[in-house]
Every structure is written in C-alpha cells, then in structure tokens.
Design a protein that fits this description.
Distance between the termini of chain A: 36 Å
Radius of gyration of chain B: 14 Å
Structural class of chain A: mainly beta
CATH topology of chain B: Immunoglobulin-like
Helix content of chain B: under 10%
Strand content of chain A: over 45%
Oligomer: heterodimer
Helix content of chain A: under 10%
Structural class of chain B: mainly beta
CATH class of chain B: Mainly Beta
Shape of chain B: globular
Number of domains of chain B: 1
Largest sheet of chain A: 7 strands, mixed
Number of helices of chain A: 0
Number of domains of chain A: 1
Largest interface: A-B, 25 and 23 residues
Largest sheet of chain B: 6 strands, mixed
Order of helices and strands of chain A: EEEEEEEEEEE
Number of strands of chain B: 11
Number of strands of chain A: 11
CATH topology of chain A: Immunoglobulin-like
CATH superfamily of chain B: Immunoglobulins
Strand content of chain B: over 45%
Number of helices of chain B: 0
C-alpha cells in the first residue's frame, strides 16, 4: 500500500511566522502535490513537483513556496503566515506510467489542519 | 474550460436504500477519471480509476461507471459505514499533472 505521511496532524502558528509542512511518500513516485481544502471551495492546487528540484505553480501559489531536495520528500513553506492561510493542507503523490502512459491516481496523506492566530 | 461538477451536494439514505452519485465533466480529452472517499478529518482515499466510456469498476457495495460526459458511483444496499464525502477527479490528456476535482457529495446513511 502507498503511504503518504504528513509530519503534523494539527499545527497552530502565529501571524508572520515562517511555517514548514513536510510530506514523505514511500512508493518512489515521481509526482508530488500540495493542496489546501476549504469548506465550499473544495481542493485547490498550490504547487506540484514532477521530479527532484522541479516545481510548478498550481492555482493558488501566492504566499507559498515549496522544496523538493529528495524524491520522497516535498515541503510546503508559508513564507509569512497570515490568518487567511488557516486551512486543511493535503499532500499527495502519484507515479507516471512509462509502460502504458495511463493516468494514475493520486494518493493522499491524512492532512495537516493548520491554524494561524 | 475543464471542470467537474458533482451532484447532489448531500444525500441522506436509509440503510439498504440504494442510490447513485453523479460526476459530470467537461475536459478536452479525458485521460482518466478517479473516485475517492473522504472521511471527516482525513485525506481522500482512492477508490477507482476509469479510463474510457463503457468501463465499470466494482468494490464491495460500490460500482463506478463512465460515459463520455459523466460518471456514476452506484451504492447498493449502503451501510452506515459508507457515510463519507465522495470526490470525483479527472485528468486531461493535455496536462498530465493537473487533476480537476469536484466539490464532492456528502453521503449520510442512517441505520
């Protein structure tokens, strides 16, 4: 079974702090993603990475950055936390099938519920 | 514009009362459609992938079907433990790394 592990289930930080959310996957997946999930807005993509040191902006990258130094680890950084970044953050991974080029599902961690006070 | 719409937003069923959830999509070249289950406070759990119209997948009381415009998740004789939010997502041929998610159907099965 694919295992995607997010470092914290719950996190409380203060406005202006630099916040790090960590995600590790154990299936050697090429692709990793960060989403935030808010009531009524669904899942929104922040950033994704298709290889080590590679990253691309998603739909809502403002106020966030990411780091992928190793294939299994993808970090989300809130440069200067603000109250509107209070949310559930979900990390996901997927692999790219070079054999048949078929779409592969994302596998999600259990999320980090982040509160910015 | 690529998008996914799920209906209904919420569904209440009695235990044993079968029903279907709908996922309508507009995407330029479907690469794959995915169904997920999400329990409160947890991440989405992968259920099925469907690739082409006419395809069906089954798992216990759940059966997913796909046409050229929509997918259905049929729930047969549901139990209270089937209560969850069910999410649908699609991936398009033109962008391998983008998954378009619907806003989900919240299912509540009463004993």
């Amino acid at each position: 079974d694919v295992k995607v592990t997010q470092s914290s289930r719950y996190l409380v930080k203060r406005t202006g702090e630099k916040v790090f959310l960590e995600c590790v996957q154990d299936m050697d997946h090429e692709n990793m993603f960060w989403y935030r999930q808010d009531p009524g807005l669904g899942l929104r993509l922040i950033y994704f990475s298709y290889d080590v040191k590679m990253k691309e902006k998603g739909d809502i990258p403002e106020g966030y950055s990411v780091s992928r130094e190793k294939k299994e680890r993808f970090s989300l950084i809130l440069e200067s936390a603000s109250t509107n970044q209070t949310s559930m953050y979900l990390c996901a991974s997927s692999f790219f099938s070079v054999v048949d080029n078929r779409a592969q599902p994302q596998h999600f961690g259990d999320g980090t519920r982040l509160s910015i006070l | 514009e690529d998008q996914v719409t799920q209906s209904p937003e919420a569904l209440r069923l009695q235990e044993g009362e079968s029903s279907s959830l709908n996922c309508s999509y507009t995407v330029s070249g479907l690469r794959g459609l995915f169904w997920y289950r999400q329990d409160p406070g947890k991440g989405p759990e992968f259920l099925f992938t469907l690739y082409s119209a006419g395809e069906e997948k089954e798992k216990e009381r759940l059966k997913a079907t796909l046409t050229k415009k929509e997918s259905f998740l049929h729930i047969t004789a549901p139990k209270p433990e089937d209560s969850a939010t069910y999410l649908c997502a699609v991936q398009a041929n033109r962008n391998f790394n983008k998954f378009y998610f619907g806003s989900g159907t919240k299912l509540n099965v009463k004993p």
